[in-house]
Protein backbone atom coordinates (compact mmCIF):
# COMPACT_ATOMS: atom_id res chain seq x y z
CA UNK A 1 0.00 0.00 0.00
CA UNK A 2 1.39 3.38 -1.02
CA UNK A 3 -1.19 5.64 0.63
CA UNK A 4 -4.68 5.56 2.08
CA UNK A 5 -7.35 8.26 2.24
CA UNK A 6 -10.27 8.09 4.66
CA UNK A 7 -13.58 9.81 4.07
CA UNK A 8 -17.17 9.46 5.29
CA UNK A 9 -17.86 6.63 2.82
CA UNK A 10 -14.82 4.54 3.71
CA UNK A 11 -11.15 4.33 2.81
CA UNK A 12 -9.44 4.62 -0.55
CA UNK A 13 -6.19 2.68 -0.84
CA UNK A 14 -3.71 3.46 -3.60
CA UNK A 15 -1.13 0.76 -4.24
CA UNK A 16 2.18 0.89 -6.07
CA UNK A 17 0.70 -1.16 -8.93
CA UNK A 18 -1.76 1.63 -9.74
CA UNK A 19 1.06 4.16 -10.01
CA UNK A 20 3.04 1.69 -12.16
CA UNK A 21 0.08 1.41 -14.54
CA UNK A 22 -0.17 5.20 -14.79
CA UNK A 23 3.56 5.37 -15.56
CA UNK A 24 3.30 2.64 -18.20
CA UNK A 25 0.30 4.40 -19.75
CA UNK A 26 2.27 7.67 -19.94
CA UNK A 27 4.97 5.99 -22.03
CA UNK A 28 2.40 5.01 -24.70
CA UNK A 29 2.59 8.55 -26.14
CA UNK A 30 6.37 8.28 -26.71
CA UNK A 31 6.49 4.63 -27.75
CA UNK A 32 9.61 3.88 -29.74
CA UNK A 33 11.41 7.04 -28.55
CA UNK A 34 11.72 6.59 -24.78
CA UNK A 35 11.94 3.42 -22.67
CA UNK A 36 12.13 2.69 -18.97
CA UNK A 37 15.55 1.41 -17.91
CA UNK A 38 17.62 0.94 -14.79
CA UNK A 39 19.83 3.44 -12.98
CA UNK A 40 23.00 2.13 -14.60
CA UNK A 41 21.72 2.65 -18.13
CA UNK A 42 23.25 -0.65 -19.08
CA UNK A 43 20.83 -3.20 -20.44
CA UNK A 44 21.39 -6.46 -22.21
CA UNK A 45 21.65 -6.28 -26.01
CA UNK A 46 19.02 -9.02 -26.17
CA UNK A 47 16.56 -6.84 -24.20
CA UNK A 48 17.26 -3.91 -26.54
CA UNK A 49 16.60 -6.00 -29.64
CA UNK A 50 13.31 -7.39 -28.36
CA UNK A 51 12.30 -4.13 -26.69
CA UNK A 52 12.16 -5.61 -23.22
CA UNK A 53 13.34 -2.59 -21.24
CA UNK A 54 10.47 -2.89 -18.75
CA UNK A 55 11.91 -6.17 -17.48
CA UNK A 56 14.80 -4.32 -15.84
CA UNK A 57 13.12 -0.96 -15.23
CA UNK A 58 13.59 0.79 -11.93
CA UNK A 59 10.95 3.19 -10.67
CA UNK A 60 11.24 5.04 -7.40
CA UNK A 61 7.76 5.86 -6.08
CA UNK A 62 7.50 7.28 -2.56
CA UNK A 63 5.23 9.42 -0.43
CA UNK A 64 6.89 12.44 1.24
CA UNK A 65 4.76 14.49 3.66
CA UNK A 66 1.56 13.32 1.98
CA UNK A 67 2.84 14.10 -1.54
CA UNK A 68 3.90 11.66 -4.25
CA UNK A 69 7.50 11.62 -5.50
CA UNK A 70 8.39 9.66 -8.66
CA UNK A 71 11.86 9.07 -10.12
CA UNK A 72 12.23 7.19 -13.40
CA UNK A 73 15.30 6.01 -15.26
CA UNK A 74 14.95 6.01 -19.05
CA UNK A 75 16.81 5.33 -22.27
CA UNK A 76 16.08 7.57 -25.25
CA UNK A 77 16.34 7.02 -28.99
CA UNK A 78 19.38 8.89 -30.35
CA UNK A 79 18.30 11.98 -32.31
CA UNK A 80 14.95 12.44 -30.56
CA UNK A 81 14.16 15.46 -28.41
CA UNK A 82 14.76 14.29 -24.86
CA UNK A 83 13.17 17.39 -23.33
CA UNK A 84 10.01 17.07 -25.41
CA UNK A 85 9.57 13.33 -24.85
CA UNK A 86 10.30 13.49 -21.11
CA UNK A 87 8.01 16.52 -20.84
CA UNK A 88 5.15 14.57 -22.43
CA UNK A 89 5.67 11.67 -20.01
CA UNK A 90 5.87 13.92 -16.94
CA UNK A 91 2.83 15.94 -18.03
CA UNK A 92 0.73 12.82 -18.52
CA UNK A 93 1.78 11.26 -15.19
CA UNK A 94 1.14 14.53 -13.34
CA UNK A 95 -2.29 14.91 -14.90
CA UNK A 96 -3.34 11.35 -14.11
CA UNK A 97 -2.04 11.41 -10.54
CA UNK A 98 -3.55 14.77 -9.64
CA UNK A 99 -6.85 14.49 -11.54
CA UNK A 100 -7.70 10.80 -11.43
CA UNK A 101 -6.24 9.79 -8.08
CA UNK A 102 -6.36 13.26 -6.51
CA UNK A 103 -2.99 12.72 -4.85
CA UNK A 104 -0.85 15.83 -4.37
CA UNK A 105 2.36 15.63 -6.38
CA UNK A 106 5.75 16.50 -4.89
CA UNK A 107 7.85 16.07 -8.04
CA UNK A 108 8.59 13.81 -10.99
CA UNK A 109 12.23 13.30 -11.93
CA UNK A 110 13.43 11.55 -15.05
CA UNK A 111 17.08 10.51 -15.34
CA UNK A 112 18.17 9.75 -18.90
CA UNK A 113 20.88 7.13 -18.52
CA UNK A 114 21.48 6.21 -22.15
CA UNK A 115 20.61 6.65 -25.80
CA UNK A 116 19.88 3.87 -28.28
CA UNK A 117 21.49 4.25 -31.71
CA UNK A 118 20.09 2.99 -35.01
CA UNK A 119 22.08 -0.24 -34.77
CA UNK A 120 20.66 -0.80 -31.26
CA UNK A 121 23.82 0.04 -29.31
CA UNK A 122 23.41 1.96 -26.10
CA UNK A 123 25.46 5.11 -25.65
CA UNK A 124 25.85 6.23 -22.04
CA UNK A 125 24.15 9.54 -21.14
CA UNK A 126 23.73 11.39 -17.86
CA UNK A 127 20.90 13.88 -17.94
CA UNK A 128 18.30 14.66 -15.32
CA UNK A 129 15.01 16.49 -15.83
CA UNK A 130 12.32 17.27 -13.31
CA UNK A 131 8.78 18.56 -13.48
CA UNK A 132 9.29 21.59 -11.22
CA UNK A 133 12.14 23.00 -13.31
CA UNK A 134 10.31 22.40 -16.58
CA UNK A 135 7.20 24.16 -15.25
CA UNK A 136 9.25 27.07 -13.87
CA UNK A 137 11.18 27.47 -17.14
CA UNK A 138 7.87 27.21 -19.06
CA UNK A 139 9.09 24.33 -21.20
CA UNK A 140 5.79 22.54 -20.48
CA UNK A 141 2.40 23.55 -19.12
CA UNK A 142 -0.09 21.39 -17.29
Notable features of this structure?
142 residues; alpha+beta
What topology does this entry show?
Layout: E1 3-7, E2 10-14, H1 16-26, E3 34-36, H2 45-50, E4 59-64, E5 67-77, H3 82-100, E6 105-116, E7 122-130, H4 131-136
Helix pairs in contact: 1-3
* Span between termini: 27 Å
Ranges where pLDDT stays below 50 over 5 or more residues in a row are none
Radius of gyration: 16 Å
Number of domains: 1
What proportion of the residues form beta strands (DSSP E)?
35-45%
Q: What best-fitting shape do the alpha-carbon axes yield?
A: elongated
Q: What is the count of DSSP helices, taking H or I runs of 4+ residues?
A: 4
Please summarize the sheet with the most strands. 5 strands, mixed
Structural class: alpha+beta
Counted beta strands = 7
Instruction: List the helices and strands in order.
Output: EEHEHEEHEEH
Estimate the mean pLDDT confidence: 82
What percentage of residues falls in helices of 4 or more residues?
25-40%
